Task: inverse folding
């Protein structure tokens, strides 16, 4: 009797060499950026991550975190990214433009790779959408750092909402709850909503908030992904529409 050969369909498509690579330097406590970037990134963009102790009990002025940042950045550079992002909203905004420049200089000196910070990409996204006044929603204990940075870039916070959470409590706030908060605190004099933090489910609420309020939304992870795609356009080529990430992705 002839042997029966079982035919099996392949379980997944073969991996394809990325056309561009992004390296994210994220806080050691961050749980959300890595899965979200891998989920929402367009085809052809690889995302690599390194962690550094730069927030919470390890937070210090930028110059005092130089060794920690440089060590993590150098390890990240080994993966060969085309662009590195110092990816922490609070940390990159805390000392204003001067502190942002210090952080970028530390990473560039350690890696020799083009570097940008979350703070800069958020400011760039707000400008691209002509958002000069915002409702600010975050999980932080206080939004003082964010309000001050936005003011430095000509953006007024007309409603300041900090949920006063700690660490891993951030991820417990659902996309539906972010939508409810946006509805609750929206004001006529706000051009849109800024959802501040890289370690939340906020990015998953963007589309629903924009549909509900009719105003644009910027989130830290969304702004960074948008900025990376723009900067790597020559390598990535045409990128399919990403409607779940809001109006920003069409700018």
Result:
């Amino acid at each position: 009797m002839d042997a029966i050969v079982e035919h099996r369909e392949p379980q997944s498509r073969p991996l394809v060499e990325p056309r561009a690579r992004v390296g994210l330097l994220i806080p050691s406590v961050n749980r959300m950026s890595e899965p979200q970037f891998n989920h929402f990134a367009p085809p052809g963009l690889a995302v690599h991550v390194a962690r550094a102790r730069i927030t919470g009990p390890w937070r210090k002025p930028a110059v005092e975190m130089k060794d920690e940042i440089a060590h993590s950045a150098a390890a990240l550079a080994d993966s060969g990214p085309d662009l590195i992002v110092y990816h922490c909203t609070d940390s990159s905004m805390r000392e204003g433009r001067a502190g942002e420049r210090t952080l970028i200089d530390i990473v560039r000196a350690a890696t020799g790779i083009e570097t940008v910070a979350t703070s800069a990409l958020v400011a760039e996204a707000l400008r691209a959408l002509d958002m000069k006044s915002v409702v600010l929603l975050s999980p932080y204990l206080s939004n003082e750092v964010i309000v001050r940075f936005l003011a430095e870039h000509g953006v007024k916070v007309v409603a300041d909402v900090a949920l006063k959470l700690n660490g891993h409590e951030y991820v417990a706030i659902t996309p539906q709850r972010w939508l409810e908060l946006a509805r609750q605190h929206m004001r006529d004099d706000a051009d849109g909503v800024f959802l501040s933090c890289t370690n939340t489910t906020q990015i998953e609420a963007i589309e629903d908030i924009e549909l509900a309020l009719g105003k644009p939304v910027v989130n830290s992870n969304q702004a960074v992904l948008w900025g990376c795609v723009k900067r790597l356009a020559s390598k990535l080529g045409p990128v399919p529409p990403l409607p779940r990430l809001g109006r920003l992705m069409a700018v």
